[in-house]
Amino acid sequence: MGVLGVLAVVAGLSPTAAAAAPPSLPEPPSAAVQDSGPVPLAVTRVLLRSDGVAGASVREHLQLRAPGLDVVLAADGDIVDQPPPFAHVVVHPRADAKDRWELALFLSNGAAYFREFEASDAEAARVTATMVIGLLHGPALAQLGPAATAPPAVEPAPTEAPALGEPPAPPPRVELGVAIAGGLLAGFGAPRDVDALAAGTVAVLVAARLRRGATFAIELRAAPRARLDYVLGRFGVLPHAGYTWRRGHAELQLTAFASIERWILRRDGGAAALDTLVPEESGSPWLLGAGARLAPGYRIERGRLHARVGVFTALSGAAMARGGVARISVPDANGLPIPGFRVGGFEWALGFDVMFWLPSRHTPRNAGRSSRTDHRHDASMSSMGSRPRARGRRVHQPVG
Length: 400
Prior knowledge:
The protein has 400 residues and is of the alpha+beta class. The protein is built from 6 helices and 17 strands.
């Protein structure tokens, strides 16, 4: 029903009598809705999809005005699973005007209603809820049957419905990340007569973060240390498991890891003798260990690629595969042995890292159902063109 028909129902007149009255705009929905006490509605369930305004805040305002109304956010359910009668509400900001919003309301019987309103970001949730309650509370909607049986009404001037923006995409199920890190590795504890600087480190870390934050990673690390004519090299694989927390631009990654490393000693490009190992029975070329790593950082988002720039620190312990921690002595200029390197023991790592996150292309489980929902709305809107108009004005614009 057009504007005249709606006014006729509200005023208690017949649509024919209203056709003779001068056209006027309906009152805003907020004028017909009171904030106190429950109100009768055309449906008992609303599926809400919002962009630019918090869905939880809109739901709170809706249930404040209608405590018995069941409000389902798009992330919590899908229209395909909703038994009628229900309403599907989509609200989003206009891209070409500040503080202007567009709202669409689709009923399960095929009727659709569009509204446009003005509100600041702070007031958008309250105004959206008031407008939805107003649409569902109107006497015309309260008595609305199937759209096909609605009586014909005065046809308004042809008006194109405003284009609705795409709803916000759900977070990806899996994100893949690659990090490059570099820093220093310091040893403490026994052996105490060796320099605290154990090695410099450079590493590549490949990670996978699940939707709820659980993170798994593999780190490949090289840790060289040079002294006099000798170079001690440590090459290891470190599997990680932990959690990546995010809020705004902040990201914090905490993981526990195990380590297996192969170490070699070189002198002037060739293998060096290891007869100066202390203790001698600990001369295994493998190190086994474990530890924990903490990496806070700042997130930078550019399209699908997200980067984190930050620092990392790690505490770990390692020992020879046969047990113990090795101290390697090297000869000085006079040929006398001096403490040269430490291999294993307790260690502390500190450095910088840059991680690049790339969301996977895997389609979420409910993406297909959401697509079918959109097609169902399109088909409903197309078929309505061959039906008599449902009561209520579909586009909130003055009649020319």
